């Protein structure tokens, strides 16, 4: 039975390692518009060039989620479909995927299509995709895969360590006054997801070392035990990732850690020096 695992490009990964037999993996891309130019969030995107264009542009840049038609294109390619989206409170990607499912099932009611609103982004989607692929390879049923992926998602955590806030402020994710003051004072702010998939900024400090220490403290408070994969995404901040990886392995030596550069969409919000960690 053919499977399609399709994610919007907030997942950060650009391919699925070692796809199980019968499994396809695809990306439904976001678009980032800077002035009159549109950047499509695919593996070919030059993220650095896009960020520089945003810096040079004297105006607000915008993003657009994958359309229902784009989602539907992938839903048509397999009998069993698992779709993964960024939080519905951060984007319209989930609602677009729901519309696509209705369109496809109207003509192909025998298809099985499960859409997971991760209420998160980045490693939440990537981890779910990797888990689903492993379970499919083990011969699990559609219902079993969907239930396991849902449980994996429900038990996960995500933290955002940001140094720049302009785009979040422009998009209404944080107060413009807060974003302006934090930027001027060289603040580092740590956020986490709320139960409904929004961002709660709960800790602020000056300097990156203290925010990295707080991440380790928060992981411990959340009950992390080293058995769940960790994904660290960064926007031009490999040094912070290396320090964080070292700190995680010092506390949890067996932790499986993946470090990736942010995709176009996540770079748009994390901005320069931002990191996103899921566990």
Give a brief rundown of this model.
The protein has 279 residues and is of the alpha/beta class.
Structure overview:
The chain has helices at residues 47-56, 68-75, 93-107, 123-137, 142-154, 166-170, 176-184, 208-221, 238-251, 264-270, and strands spanning 3-8, 23-28, 31-34, 37-40, 62-64, 80-85, 112-117, 158-162, 187-193, 199-206, 230-234, 257-261, 275-278. Strands 10-9-8-13-11-12 form a 6-stranded mixed β-sheet, sandwiched between helices. Helix content is 39%, strand content 25%. The protein is globular and about 55 Å long. It is built from 10 helices and 13 strands. It folds into 2 domains: 3-30 and 66-154, Rossmann fold, CATH 3.40.50.10440; 158-278, Hypothetical Protein Tm841, Chain: A,domain 3. The chain is an alpha/beta fold and 279 residues long. α2 packs across α3.
Along the chain, the helix and strand elements come as EEEEHEHEHEHHEHHEEHEHEHE
Query: Percent helix among the residues?
Result: 25-40%
Q: Into how many domains do the coordinates divide? A: 2
Mean pLDDT: 93
List low-pLDDT spans: none
CATH topology of the largest domain: Hypothetical Protein Tm841, Chain: A,domain 3
In what range is the share of β-strand residues?
A: 15-25%
- Rg over CA atoms, rounded to whole Å, is 19 Å
The coarse silhouette is: globular
Q: From the helix content, strand content and strand pairing, which structural class follows?
A: alpha/beta
Count of helix runs: 10
What composes the largest sheet? 6 strands, mixed
Give the strand order, joined by hyphens, for the main sheet: 10-9-8-13-11-12
Number of strands: 13
């Amino acid at each position: 039975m053919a499977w399609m695992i399709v994610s919007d490009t907030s997942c950060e990964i650009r391919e699925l390692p070692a796809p199980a037999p019968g499994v396809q993996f695809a990306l439904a891309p976001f678009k980032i518009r800077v002035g009159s130019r549109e950047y499509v969030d695919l593996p070919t995107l030059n993220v650095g060039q896009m960020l520089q264009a945003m810096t040079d542009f004297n105006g607000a840049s915008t993003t657009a989620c994958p359309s229902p038609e784009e989602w539907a294109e992938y839903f048509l390619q397999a009998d069993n479909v698992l779709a993964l989206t960024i939080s519905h409170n951060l984007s319209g990607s989930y609602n677009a995927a729901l519309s696509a499912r209705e369109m496809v099932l109207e003509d192909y009611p025998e298809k099985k299509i499960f859409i997971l609103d991760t209420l998160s982004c980045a490693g939440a989607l990537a981890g779910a995709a990797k888990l689903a692929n492993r379970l499919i390879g083990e011969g699990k049923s559609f219902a079993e895969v969907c239930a396991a992926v849902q449980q994996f998602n429900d038990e996960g955590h995500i933290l955002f360590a940001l140094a720049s806030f302009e785009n979040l402020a422009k998009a209404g994710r944080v107060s413009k006054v807060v974003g302006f003051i934090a930027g001027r004072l060289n603040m580092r702010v740590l956020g986490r997801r709320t139960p409904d998939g929004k961002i709660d900024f709960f800790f602020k400090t000056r300097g990156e070392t203290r925010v990295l220490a707080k991440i380790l403290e928060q992981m411990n408070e959340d009950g992390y035990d080293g058995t769940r994969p960790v994904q660290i995404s960064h926007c031009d901040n490999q040094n912070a990732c290396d320090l964080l990886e070292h700190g995680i392995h010092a506390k949890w030596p067996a932790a499986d850690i993946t470090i990736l550069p942010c995709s176009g969409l996540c770079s748009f919000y994390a901005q320069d020096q931002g990191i996103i960690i899921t566990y």
